[in-house]
Amino acid sequence: MRLNLKPHHLLLAQKLVDKAHANGGLAPLDLERFWEDNALARRDPFARDCPQVPLGIGMAPDCFFAELGIDENAETLHKLHREPEWSRPLTKQYNDRAEEIVGRRLLSEAGPADPTRQYPPVKALHDIFEAVNEWHTDSWWLKQAAHNVDELRALLDRVEARLDNLRAFLLPPNWDEERQRLMALGVKPGLYRGQRGPVTLAASIYGPENLLFLFYDSPDLVARFRDLILRAMLDLGTILDEEAGYTAEAAPRGFSFCDDNCCLLSPDMYELFGYPILKGLFDRYAPDPGNTRGQHSDSAMGHLLPLLGRLNLSWTNFGPTVMVDQIRQHLPNAVIHGQLAPFTFSRNDEVGLVAEFLRDFDMAREKRGLLFATAGSINNGSRLTGLRLIMAAIQEYGRYERLSTDDSEPAAAARSGLSLDDTLRPMTQA
Q1: I need a labelling partner for 297 at 20 to 30 A (CA). Which of 181, 190, 263, 271 fits?
Q2: CA–CA separation, 393 vs 386, rounded Å?
């Protein structure tokens, strides 16, 4: 399904695809110039001297299967995500191919981290709420912790008691000894600057249908659930800041959420439940202009844009049905990571890849601030030739006119040319 595409988008896209097919499948592209311009564009996608729309697609190991001709099944998915010794040579093979097609080695080939410089694992927010993290086929899933109102009330009672001595619950028995050793080596523990969003977390803990009925049947319990999530997040962040040696004033700024399930709530529901949690974390960790305030929600959550606009997000990554012009209306200073439909990429819909870029560029051209990326995850089937085609579309059709006025306008709060992967890298809790 191709959304909001106009006839001229499709015509221009077909012309570029035809050129690629006439060139052995490789879209015409000045690689050296592209990467030079992309580096400048990523510094600030709003800047007056931004030469082109920056590219925010970094690819993913899941792309190995189609690109390298490997069968994708439960066994190989398990090996890809759980057996580094199996995937490491594939990474090199993939990067060799990427270097030929797009001029860059896209994925890290770094070996395993030195175990002597790693902190022992700490518990996460879902552990506080007794949701067990289990591996199923190709990813981690939280196991539901409460199934009815009585179980939820009892769970929240236990959470409340747990928060009274949270440090003892979070940190393993050998933490103090390991912290002393590693801090002497200059290795600080990880901070808490990103989280599975409140609606997704709550739906995992209590079940999505149960959560929705709870708003009608027990609004008091919804409020208590919300308040304990917020308290747990703030306490968790404070403890890890202190363990890293930071005071509240000197702690690094920024916080980001991944909340696909936020689309399930109406605006009134979200304002009651999700909005106060985001506001509480942003007020604590991103109080100043220029601090990162991020939200990834690759779902049809456009109805929540007015509320999210009140939170002054600095970057977004929303679902493919949420258009650039809609986002910009409510979030004038946010770098928009999107809005390429992930399935357009994974199905290698070549005309669609270019046409969706043209659509988004038309919507972003006047105010800028677009980092062209998938509106969600990058999945198997997304090809390097497709990435090159997108790069060619940016170089051919996605260049900005250089503006002569000085770069003194707004968007200071959104000065982030980072890709979504880069933005989320500091996250310690998924």
Answers
A1: 190
A2: 11
Count: domains in the chain? 1
With a pLDDT cut of 70, the percent of the chain lying above it is 93
For residue 402, pLDDT over 80 is answered with no
Is there a domain that residue 393 lies in?
no
- Which among 410, 393, 399 is positioned nearest to 333, based on CA atoms? 410
Position 153 in a domain: yes
Strands, E assignment, 155-196 = 194-196
pLDDT of residue 423: 35
Q: Give the other-Cβ count within 10 Å of 294's Cβ.
A: 27
Read off the pLDDT of residues 73-110 as tens digits, 9 standing for 90 and up.
Answer: 988 988 998 888 999 999 999 999 999 999 999 999 98
- 3-state SS, residue 297: strand
Cα–Cα distance measured from residue 251 to residue 245, given in angstroms and rounded to the nearest whole number: 9
Is 421's pLDDT higher than 50? no
354 assigned to some structural domain: no
Q: Which tokens belong to 426?
A: 């500091």
What CATH code is carried by the domain that includes residue 236?
3.20.20.210
In a domain, 17, yes or no: no
Q: How confident is the model at residue 401 (pLDDT cuts 50, 70, 90)?
A: confident
Q: Collect all residues with Cβ–Cβ distance below 8 Å to 298 and sequence separation of at least 6.
A: 260, 317, 318, 319, 320, 342, 375, 376, 377
